[in-house]
Amino acid sequence: MPHIPPAPVNNRLLAALPDKDSRRFQRGCETVDLLFAEILSEPGEHIRHVYFPTESFISLVGNEGMLGASLALGIDVSPLQAIVQGKGAALRMDSDLFCRELGRSPALQHQRKLYLNVMLGQLAQTAACTRFHVVESRLARWLLMTHDRAHSDEFHVTHEYLAFMLGVRRVGVTKAATALQNRKLISYHRGDVKILDRRGLEESSCSCYRADIATYAETMDSQPPRRKTDAAAIRSKAVIPEKAVVSTRRGAAPSVPRQ
């Protein structure tokens, strides 16, 4: 019998599975169309489904990952609110079925371990970013991350959401967005964002954006060894300098150039 590969799926986690595992996994999924601003879970709620975005993105999770990864750690309660930021299709699976699939597929277990490692690394990077980088650079980083997942130069994001994600007041978001708009990097009106100059926005972003990309590429993608070296070099430029860590331990405020 000729080998019949599974239907291609536009989710990088699932696309990395062997054909046999991918075919079985997709049989347990249903395709759903997610609506903008739809709330998929609230903090403290039982996780009923896991989502693998294919054309949508949920709380800055796009087709590079999944929503509900905490199930892989045995935690079936949602830690955060999950809201649809970009409408479109996603694959949805019942949480109990997902846990059974984890037990049946060593390849799926391996992929979720890699993905959780990426998430932990990016969370640590975000914590350092929030402490050491100015709002304008951090806003540029978040807009780039959203641009990557929206697969479009235009998307909608509110002041309230940006203020929440950046940990600043709305006036801080307004000042930073105005600065980027005055430099003709973006247009921004009533939450509608259009990326005008992607390269310029990357130059305005802090190095944490490049570090996030490098972390995912090194961990999740199959790349030549040279790529891994490049990724490590990018990350080394983005983390907190060693002197800053030492001075913090001594109780002094770290002196780190702002980007």
Look at the structure and give the mean pLDDT. Answer: 83
Annotation field: number of helices: 11
For the biggest sheet, the summary is: 3 strands, antiparallel
- What percentage of residues falls in helices of 4 or more residues? 40-55%
Terminal Cα separation, in Å?
59 Å
The helix/strand class is alpha+beta
User: Element order, helices and strands?
Assistant: HHEEEEEEHHHEHHEEHHHH
Radius of gyration: 20 Å
Report the count of strand segments: 9
Strand content range: 5-15%
Q: Strand sequence of the main sheet, in spatial order?
A: 1-6-3
The backbone outline, from C-alpha atoms, is globular
Q: State the low-pLDDT regions, or none.
A: 1-5, 222-237, 239-259
State the main characteristics.
three-stranded antiparallel beta sheet, alpha+beta, disordered N terminus, 50% helix, 259 residues
Task: Reconstruct the topology from this structure.
Elements: H1 12-15, H2 19-27, E1 30-34, E2 39-41, E3 49-53, E4 57-58, E5 82-86, E6 88-94, H3 95-104, H4 106-132, H5 135-150, E7 154-156, H6 159-166, H7 170-182, E8 186-189, E9 192-195, H8 198-204, H9 208-220, H10 225-238, H11 242-249
Antiparallel strand pairs: 1-6, 2-5, 3-6, 4-5, 7-9, 8-9
Structural write-up:
By secondary structure, the chain is an alpha+beta fold. It has helices at residues 12-15, 19-27, 95-104, 106-132, 135-150, 159-166, 170-182, 198-204, 208-220, 225-238, 242-249; strands spanning 30-34, 39-41, 49-53, 57-58, 82-86, 88-94, 154-156, 186-189, 192-195. It has a three-stranded antiparallel β-sheet. A hairpin with a 2-residue loop joins β8 (186-189) and β9. α4 packs antiparallel against α9 (208-220) and α5 (135-150) runs antiparallel to α8 (198-204). The termini are far apart. Residues 1-5, 222-237 and 239-259 have low confidence and may be disordered.
